[in-house]
């Protein structure tokens, strides 16, 4: 994803979440998001069966 | 009692029990050491002197007894301490109302006779591996005060390694007990996820948060751990299972234990001191084989995602209204964490179960696994990056590369310190609910002199 696309995502998400990102915070936020999304891609790449259960189990 | 500052909790309790020294004298000596040295170490953010002296008098009057009677301890400042706002290393939380009640683990330690002497410095909201804090200043490593303690339980590491207290409590979401234990040269126990109640502590990532002790001996870890075990309904993450006391199991030795060394991922991305420390422990344990944990990098990635997203959800309100009051390093990570697509989080939690099942299968053939605790010994305070296998990486996010994939599935771990110019620890990893195995191995290494908490220079 390019910085421009990611910046558009950051702007839209920030507006949706009610967050204000000052200009000086932009680069570190983008850098952190880039790392997190890379981690996310690694996790998404792993094939899991449809019946895989998440780790936390709610007990009523 | 000439060397109170480096005495074990067990030895202090024995001296108080047999009348060699009073609890008041122990606490007074502790308070004067803190006053003398903490200006440099910056481990404490709060000293609860009046409370500690009153408690000591109660011990001396015979109103309180127990295996830790007269033993001073301190807690990371995310534990509720009655009468203090629970800072959790932040500026914002200082405005909270003072806690009305101590956290459950403080109550349990004090019921066993221990005496709380204060609250300890930590990385903001526990999102940290350095022990630095923008608001309170960095905690400093007693072995070299230009170096980091490691975090986020940095004050816990500094206070125990600096001889201020024999015992401290910390929290560990991705490594925050094991990293400071490594950098400060201490024994640290991160119990099984759900073993110790978190009731009355400020959370970070409820899916991953653990609490536990740091000490200078295995016996002290076990004493504190046994005093803290047992279910508590205030923490839905705490397992409803009875205590499994370990104190009497420590000296069972290695007989019958199959131990392997974690290979692959755990052999890469480390400096020579980390490899050397694991080599020494492996040799002492006669380990002759590596074992491969599956998909470790992905496990670390999933832990990273869950951490950043749950942390972001916890702090979103404060991020909306007071973003400038956060440590910028924490704020910028949490803002990004709020933007993680939900599908990634769900997949991360599904992957977590897959990985747990795969690692539990490995434990059918082995009773314990050893691995590095940190990729290096303590970096300099303020150091932002280091080089691992030729790649320059941020210190703050990468000190936990070896701890994070283990706590991700809640396995119990004892960090054992190996001496050197600067200490560094090795993880002894056991199957769920088998803290006793990791502690037994740690005790063997301690009693044979392979793993000991080295005394910092210039500390008499």
Describe this structure in a few short sentences.
The complex is a heterodimer of chains A (60) and B (460). Chain A has 60 residues and is mainly α. Chain A has helices at 3-17, 23-44.
Blueprint (SSEs and pairs):
The complex is a heterodimer of chains A (60) and B (460).
Chain A: H1 3-17, H2 23-44
Chain B: H1 9-17, H2 23-41, E1 44-47, H3 49-60, E2 72-76, H4 104-111, E3 115-120, E4 140-141, E5 144-148, H5 154-161, E6 167-172, H6 178-184, E7 187-190, E8 210-215, H7 218-228, E9 259-262, H8 272-284, E10 290-291, H9 296-321, H10 328-337, H11 342-362, E11 368-372, E12 385-388, E13 391-394, H12 395-398, H13 404-407, E14 413-418, E15 424-429, H14 435-447
Parallel strand pairs in B: 2-3, 2-6, 9-10, 9-11
Antiparallel strand pairs in B: 1-3, 4-5, 6-8, 7-8, 7-14, 11-15, 12-13, 14-15
Q: Can you walk me through this structure?
A:
The complex is a heterodimer of chains A (60) and B (460). Chain A has 60 residues and is mainly α. Chain A is built from 2 helices and no strands. Chain A is elongated, with a radius of gyration of 16 Å. Chain A starts with a helix and ends in a 16-residue tail after the last helix. Chain B has 460 residues and is α/β, with parallel strands linked by helices. Chain B has a single domain, classed as Amidase signature (AS) domain (Amidase signature (AS) enzymes). Chain B has 14 helices and 15 strands. In chain B, the strands form 3 sheets. An 11-stranded mixed sheet of chain B has the order 1-3-2-6-8-7-14-15-11-9-10, with helices on both faces. A two-stranded antiparallel sheet of chain B has the order 4-5. In chain B, helix 2 (23-41) runs antiparallel to helix 3 (49-60) and helix 5 (154-161) runs parallel beside helix 6. Classes of the chains: A mainly alpha (60), B alpha/beta (460). Chains A and B meet through helix 1 and helix 2 of A and helix 9, helix 10 and helix 11 of B.
N-end to C-end Cα span of chain A: 42 Å
Quickly give the structural class of chain A: mainly alpha
The count of β-strands of chain A is: 0
Question: Would you give the CATH topology of chain B?
Answer: Amidase signature (AS) enzymes
User: Any idea what the CATH superfamily of chain B is called?
Assistant: Amidase signature (AS) domain
List the quaternary state of the chains.
heterodimer
């Amino acid at each position: 994803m390019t910085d421009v696309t990611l910046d558009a995502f950051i702007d839209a998400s920030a507006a949706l979440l009610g967050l204000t990102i000052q200009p000086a915070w932009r680069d570190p936020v983008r850098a952190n998001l880039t790392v997190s999304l890379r981690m996310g891609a690694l996790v998404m790449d792993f094939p899991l069966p449809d019946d895989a259960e998440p780790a936390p189990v709610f007990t009523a | 009692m000439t060397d109170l500052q480096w005495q074990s909790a067990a030895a202090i309790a024995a001296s108080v029990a047999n009348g060699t020294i009073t609890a008041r004298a122990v606490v007074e000596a502790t308070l004067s050491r803190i006053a003398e040295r903490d200006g440099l170490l910056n481990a404490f953010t709060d000293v609860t002197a009046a409370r500690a002296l009153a408690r000591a008098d109660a011990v001396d009057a015979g109103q309180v007894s127990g295996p830790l009677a007269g033993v001073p301890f301190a807690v990371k400042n995310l534990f509720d301490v009655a009468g203090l706002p629970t800072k959790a290393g932040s500026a914002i939380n200082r405005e909270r109302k003072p806690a009305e009640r101590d956290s459950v683990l403080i109550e349990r330690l004090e019921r066993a006779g221990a005496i709380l002497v204060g609250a300890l410095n930590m990385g903001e909201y526990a999102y940290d591996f350095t022990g630095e804090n923008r608001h309170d200043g960095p905690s400093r490593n007693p072995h070299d005060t230009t170096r980091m303690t490691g975090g986020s339980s940095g004050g816990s590491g500094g206070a125990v390694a600096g001889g201020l207290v024999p015992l401290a409590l910390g929290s560990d979401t991705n490594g925050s007990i094991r990293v400071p234990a490594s950098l400060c040269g201490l024994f640290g126990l991160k119990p099984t996820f759900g073993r110790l109640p978190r009731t009355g502590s400020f959370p970070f990532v409820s899916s991953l948060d653990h609490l536990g002790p740091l000490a200078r001996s295995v016996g002290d870890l076990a004493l504190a751990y046994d005093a803290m075990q047992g279910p508590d309904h205030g923490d839905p993450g705490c397992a409803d299972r009875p205590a499994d006391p370990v104190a009497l199991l420590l000296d069972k030795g290695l007989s019958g234990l199959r131990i392997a060394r974690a290979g692959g991922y755990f052999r890469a991305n480390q400096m020579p001191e980390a490899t050397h420390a694991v080599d020494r422990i492996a040799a002492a344990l006669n380990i002759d084989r590596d074992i491969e944990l599956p998909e470790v990098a992905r496990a670390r990635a999933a832990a990273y995602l869950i951490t950043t997203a749950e942390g972001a959800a916890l702090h979103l309100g404060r991020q909306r209204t007071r973003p400038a009051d956060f440590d910028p390093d924490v704020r910028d990570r949490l803002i990004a964490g709020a933007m993680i697509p939900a599908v990634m989080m769900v997949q991360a939690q599904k992957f977590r179960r897959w990985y747990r099942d795969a690692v539990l299968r490995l434990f059918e053939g082995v009773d314990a696994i050893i691995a590095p605790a940190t990729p290096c010994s303590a970096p300099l305070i303020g150091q932002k990056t280091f080089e691992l296998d030729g790649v320059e990486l941020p210190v703050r996010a990468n000190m936990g590369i070896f701890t994070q994939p283990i706590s991700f599935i809640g396995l119990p771990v004892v960090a054992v310190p190996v001496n050197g110019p600067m200490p560094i620890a090795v993880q002894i990893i056991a199957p769920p609910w088998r803290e006793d195995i990791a502690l037994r191995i740690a005790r063997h290494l301690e009693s044979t002199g392979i793993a000991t908490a080295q005394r910092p220079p210039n500390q008499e």
